[in-house]
Write a structure and sequence with these properties.
With 278 residues, the protein is an alpha/beta fold. The protein contains 13 helices and 6 strands. Helix 10 links the parallel strand 4 and strand 5. About 14% of the residues have low confidence. One of its GO terms (biological process) is DNA restriction-modification system.
Length: 278
Amino acid sequence: MPAARHQGRGAPCGESFWHWALGADGGHGHAQPPFRSSRLIGAERQPTSDCRQSLQQSHQFEGICAGFVRETFLKLGHLRPGIWDVHQVSGRNRLEIARYEQYAHLVALDRAAKADAELAAALGSDYTITPDIVVVRDTEDDSAINAPALLVDDSVTTLASLRKKNGGLPLLHASISCKWTIRSDRAQNARSEALNLVRNRKGRLPHVVVVTAEPTPSRLASIALGTGDIDCVYHFALYELQATVEALGMTDAADMLAVMVDGKRLKDISDLPLDLAV
């Protein structure tokens, strides 16, 4: 996992992804005007604007995160057996999660809303959820379930979602939202999607997490603090961020980071694969 974590730092032009993430102006590239802490944190590195502008930052960040989760989580089969798939959601499919067992009923809901304008107005978009990355577990054949001993047959477990013979869809294990930076609207959007995942499911709730590269502790707090919607926020360079605010003598920022970390609301991305194995 250490190697995979640092591999994700490799950005074009040979610079550290961490420094490249912060932007040449000391801010976040395409983010809103940065706070003082963002400027200070980003001041150590001035990447070329041509390199940064040639990349679609958010989409690339999602791809790197998906690659990291795929490379690490799939190696934990001894801790979390199963047939797994990790992929980045392309095309912003508003009914992506309807492909999975817990949310398959949303297809019928969407069909009804399209046929009835009044119903569509009442429902709004509360049932549409578009994760950036999904972790999916496939259903299991009886031969796999019965490998150690005869555990299932046609007289029992006829409704269990994990059993392929029951005809269910693959199971959504985790929904991962990637936020290159965090503005107030992005924080609210992530929370709304998390609550929609909670409210609209039938069956087990998948892991609902956010991965971000946001360097400003106050903005991290806007999405990390509080409970009930998101499992946890994962920073792609938490250790480096902690070291930087300490080195710059930013006491308030260091204290805020400590509150989120000690409160188990903010973790490093290297913690994510093991948390997904729970």
